[in-house]
Amino acid sequence: MENTTLNPAAEPDSAALAEINGNTEVATQPSRDMGGVSLLSDTGSPLSMAEIRIAYGVGGAVGTGIGAGALCLVTGAGDHKLYQELAPVGKPMTFVCTGVREVWREWREYQPGVLPKEYASLDDVKAGRYIGWDGKPESLVPLTTTWSKPFGQGGEPPQASPCMYLQMLVRKPENIDAPEFCLNLGGHWYCPAWMRCAGSQYKGVQSMIRLILMQDASNRKVAIEDARPDKVFLTLTTYAHVKNGKSIFNLIMAQKLGDNNKVERVPDTFLDEIKRLVLSAKDMPEDNGDIIDAQ
Length: 295
Description:
The chain is an alpha+beta fold and 295 residues long. It has one domain (55-276). It has 4 helices and 12 strands. Strands 1, 2, 3, 4, 5, 8, 9, 10, 11 and 12 form a 10-stranded mixed beta sheet that branches. The chain has a two-stranded antiparallel sheet with strand order 6-7. The chain is globular.
C-alpha cells in the first residue's frame, strides 16, 4: 500500500468533511451553473415593508422637494431614509388593507429619540405610566384619555389616545418608479407597506375600517374580530386646514369607486395571490424615533 503523508495544517473542505461524517446535507455547494435559485424556506417573508407617511415641514422630507401634506413612501433606516412622493394633498392613493392593529398611544410633543409608549387596552393605559410624580403616592396621576374640558372650551388634550396601524398593499402611481413596487397583482404593481394613523388622523381612518369590517362580518356571518379588511379597494387622501395659523393635515379614507360608480371589490384571485405571498399582519415595524405626528 502506498504511504500517504498528511499535512497536519491542512483541513478537509466542507464537502469532504461531510462525507467523512456521513452528512450529505452539509456537502451541498452552490451550483457552478448560472441561473439557479435556491432560497431558505424558514427565514420568514422575503418582502420588506415600506412606511407611508405624511410629509411635514420638519423631519426627513425637508429638502426633498416634496410638498407639505403629501403622502410619501419611506424606505431605509435611521439617517438613510428615502422619501418618495405618492400623492400630493387632495389626490387619492389607492391600496388594499391587509391587516389592522388598534392600540392606545401616548400623546406627547415630538422629541428626537423619545418614543411614545403604546398600550394594548384602556386598562393598560390607566395602570401604565404616571405623570407629575414626585415620589409621594398621593402625587400619582394616570394618563388622561379625554379632554379636561368640553369641546370648544379650551382645556388640556388627552395624554393617550387611540391609534391604528394599517398593513397595506399600495398601488403604484404613474409618477413614481421604485423597486419596492414588486408585486404584480391584477395588472397593477403594488408595494407592501404599513402606516400609523394617530391623533386627528385616526378619526378619518378608524370609522371606514370599522365599516368595512362590519360589512364583511355581516356578509360572511362571522364576528367582527374574524372579519377581513381586504375585500374592497380603498383610497387615502390628505387634506389641509389652518388652525391657529398652523396647517393641520388630516386623512380621508374611502372605498374606491369604479367606472360604474360602484365600489371596486378585490377579486378572489388577487386575494389568493396575497395569501400565496404570505403577507402576515401580526408584526408591525418598531418606531425608530424619526416620527412626526400631526398636532
